[in-house]
Fold this sequence. Notes:
Structural class: alpha/beta
Order of helices and strands: EHHEEHHHEHEHEHEEHEEHEHEHEHHH
Number of strands: 13
CATH topology of the largest domain: Rossmann fold
Low-confidence stretches: 58-62
Mean pLDDT: 88
Helix content: 40-55%
CATH class of the largest domain: Alpha Beta
Largest sheet: 7 strands, parallel
Strand content: 5-15%
Strand order of the largest sheet: 3-2-1-4-5-6-7
Radius of gyration: 20 Å
CATH superfamily of the largest domain: Glycogen Phosphorylase B
Amino acid sequence: MRVLIVALPLVGHTLPMLPLAVALRAAGHDVQLATGGDALVADTGPLTVHDVGADLPPTSAWRLVLGNPVLSAKVATGRGGAAGAALVLQSINAGIVAPVRALAAQWRPDLVVHDPMAIAAPIVAAELGVPAVLHGNALMDVEELRSAVIERHGLGALPPAALALDIAPPSVVGPRPGLSLRTVPWSGQGAVPEWLARPADRPRIVVSRSTINGGPGADPIPAVVRAAAAVDAEIVLVRPASEAKLPGNVRTVGWVPLDQVLPHCTAVVHHGGAGTVLGALVAGIPQLVVPGIGDRRINADLIARRGAGLAAPSRSITAEVLRRLIADDELAAAAREVQQEIAALPGPAEVVPELARLT
């Protein structure tokens, strides 16, 4: 079976799909990955990768939003709703549909697997007459946003997906149609220091920021540093913008694969990206999520509502908040419950036969 995996040219849309892609390849299927942008420098393992975003300037889509001051302000705080995101995502899809179509016409896949916002993929799959599988990559419910993108693309509708896969744990997001798929964190390459590959002598909090500029207040690191001296914990900053004047209990590291680091931590503070949210849930540790652009506010609210962590803007991160994060037994228990829930879901290798039956 020839399987074309299509993700928007963004690393956060690509990495969640790699475990299934690798499982398909390990089962003997021919797998090609179509993406672009910052995803091209990510660790994609043994997969053959095609750049379908080469002609898409990375800032062009965002200029559409920035040209509307009211919408821009809403997007920056995570309150833009479907309107702002659909404007951006439609522009990206318009830029990748031709190269995806050309690749598919030349390679002739038997099956197309795509992220929910890569509308170009089911368009091309329908043109080829092959099944399309929707692969969820986030916690938010994307149906409203997906419909808005389809409408902006000038389409009345798309053929229904042959199968929908969802990596969001049901107890966090509620019941959804389709097949639940176990999240397998994929953080890429990077050396983990020996001291970070084992538990610390006291609670350890790792603090991470986004790989993209999320606007004012999106980076929790400065606030954590200000509060750190009053917290009895080892605090590890991942890729801090500055290492000046750090308290004695604060250490720094460069790019590290969080899936290898989080199991040795007590808690994590981060920007709210879906990949980090899910990574913390897989590790079974509480998390402090900073609400922000896109789905980050939704992610923060979902984690707080489930009780597996806290949601707080950077300006509200204090020593008291950090102490609660590592000492609250209810937060830790809820995080472990979700960890066990995820572990019980079918893994990528287990759903490969389901995909093969579609062709």
